[in-house]
From TrEMBL:
InterPro entries: UDP-glycosyltransferase, UDP_glucos_trans. Coiled coil: none annotated. Keywords: Glycosyltransferase, Membrane, Transferase, Transmembrane, Transmembrane helix. The chain crosses the membrane at residues 480-501. Belongs to the UDP-glycosyltransferase family. PANTHER family: EG:EG0003.4 PROTEIN-RELATED, FI06409P-RELATED. One of its GO terms (molecular function) is UDP-glycosyltransferase activity. This is Uncharacterized protein. It comes from Didymodactylos carnosus.
Length: 513
């Protein structure tokens, strides 16, 4: 969202976000008369509370299955959504905008835009295939598009989806109901915006910008209000700061560094950290020209230090303490700048969508170590696309059907780490697949195209119906040519059948006489 906001250089921008955004973004260089930052809460305790909620939510997802974690996560998500909506309503009461751009997760914004007579754009980092379309693979079932052409996998995909919906309703129906009941009812022009009728049946027109390549997941049916724009990266603003880290990286040869980062909230269990570090150290010993850069945040750095002390292999410990070949960062790093460097060979990632697409954009293959939520589906997709490998091994189809998307406790061995890194290091097939995905994303246009699409949408008064495919305007029976089938096939067939039967009966009667 912030990358897009910065790209709107020719416009006055009000950027509404949570206080936790300050952890990731330094807003001071961008504050000006044309760029205003507003926080959803002005309370002095807001930042600490939001950071605590974020840490608790991610910790819960790391220790429980996706669906067991939802009843806990949804109320926290609801607090965030409601605070943003309250602030939005307050601003809209006194100010007017040409367009509102909102994260797709913030439910109800298109309804507010309709009430305020303002154009609406929603932004999403991914567009998952509809789980209700059984002709598309349910990404949570881990069935691939190639497998879906087989009848056994089609049946499994449908059965898994029904099981998934059942479990979702059991676990989260009450939490979702509470969330929608608690949406703002502020006196004024927006008082009745979030009624159940509006939320379920509103036909508000909004432009949806998707920050991913259309071929990442199985391609679905295109819609003229949905635009796939690759990834929102502005390469021109990547800072090239001279410090110890940048000097260390510039001293390395081409394609020699394994770079690992695991997000700001992912928590690596001790056993997983031990096997990961052991595998990485063994690979570095085998490949003498390779180097390692790991960025650990929060408790992960402490876990790494514990593992370093517990390693029983002196060669591993000596290598990991060799700052010529291994560098461990316990602070924020300029990830975009790092991924741009030719010295980086591959990216060891938690497989959040943003980080994964950044790596592919900069032509880096990915070794996936997912932790929670959609990261497991992203990891399997990356593996199936041939742009990376995954340390996560999905359970059997039967086990997955019994406990859908329950992967939080998975494990891997040090030998698996060595094998996966070796495959990415030696096999040029991955490089070719990554290059093609990078070309697709860059061709999609990214930030520049997003700004153009928003301006075009506003200039057309928020109406893209002129681009509706003609087939979509037809009635259901016309779209599937049932009227033509009736007139040109069924009716003539019935007439011919009737004539044949009449002739047969007449001939039979003549023979009888």
């Amino acid at each position: 969202m912030f990358e897009l906001a910065k790209a709107m250089k020719n416009h006055n921008v009000t950027f509404l976000t949570q206080q936790t955004a300050q952890v990731y973004i330094d807003f001071k260089p961008y504050s000006s008369s044309s760029f205003r930052v507003v926080y959803s809460s002005d309370s002095p305790d807001a930042l600490a509370m939001e950071k605590n909620n974020e840490q608790q939510a991610m910790s819960y997802f790391s220790n429980y299955s996706f669906f067991d974690a939802l009843p806990y996560f949804i109320p926290l998500l609801g607090q965030m959504i409601i605070s943003l909506l309250n602030k939005t309503i307050h601003i809209l009461t006194f100010e007017r905008f040409d367009v509102i751009v909102a994260d797709l997760m913030i439910v109800g914004v298109p309804i507010l835009c309709e009430k305020a007579n303002t154009h609406c754009v929603t932004l999403s980092t991914s567009e998952l295939p509809s789980i209700l379309d059984f002709n598309l693979p349910n990404i949570f079932s881990l069935v691939t598009s190639k497998e879906l052409t087989q009848i056994t996998h089609r049946i499994y995909n449908a059965a898994f989806t029904m099981r998934l919906i059942t479990k979702l309703m059991q676990k989260s129906a009450s939490a979702f109901y509470t969330l929608f009941q608690s949406l703002p009812r502020i006196p004024g022009p927006f008082h009745d915006s979030f009624t159940p009728t509006n939320l379920l049946f509103s036909k508000s027109k909004s432009l949806k910008l998707v920050g991913m390549p259309p071929s990442f997941f199985t391609s679905s049916y295109s819609h003229h209000y949905t635009k796939y724009l690759g990834v929102f990266i502005n390469e021109t603003v990547v800072d090239n700061v001279d410090n110890d880290l940048t000097s260390w990286m510039k001293s390395k040869s081409r394609s020699s560094i394994i770079y690992g980062a695991f997000g700001s909230t992912s928590v690596i269990p001790l056993d997983r950290m031990y096997n990961l570090i052991s595998g990485l150290a063994a690979f570095l010993l085998k490949e003498g020209d390779s180097s390692l850069l790991l960025a650990f945040r929060n408790t992960n750095y402490d876990t790494y230090q514990t593992v370093l002390k517990e390693l029983d292999n002196d060669n591993f410990r000596d290598l990991l303490n060799n700052d010529k070949r291994v560098r461990i960062e316990n602070r924020f790093v300029q990830q975009k700048w790092i991924l741009q460097q030719n010295s980086v060979k591959m990216f060891l990632s938690h497989c959040g969508m943003g980080s994964s697409l950044e790596a592919l954009y900069f032509n880096k293959s990915i070794l996936c170590m997912p932790f929670s939520m959609e990261q497991f589906a992203n990891a399997i997709t990356i593996e199936n696309l041939g742009v990376g490998e995954s340390l996560f091994v999905p359970p059997s189809a039967v086990q997955s059907l019994i406990s859908p998307y329950d992967f939080a406790k998975y494990t891997f061995t040090a030998s698996r780490v060595i094998g996966k890194i070796s495959a990415l290091w030696m096999n040029v097939t991955y490089e070719k697949a990554v290059r093609l995905m990078s070309l697709e994303m860059k061709h999609a246009g990214g930030l520049k195209r997003a700004v153009e699409e928003i301006e075009f949408f506003v200039n057309l008064d928020g109406d893209l119906d002129r681009f509706t495919p003609f087939q979509s305007t037809l009635s259901l029976y016309q779209r599937y040519m049932l009227d033509l089938l009736l007139v040109l096939v069924v009716l003539p067939g019935a007439i011919i059948t009737y004539i044949i039967l009449k002739c047969y009966k007449r001939r039979r009667k003549e023979k009888t006489e």
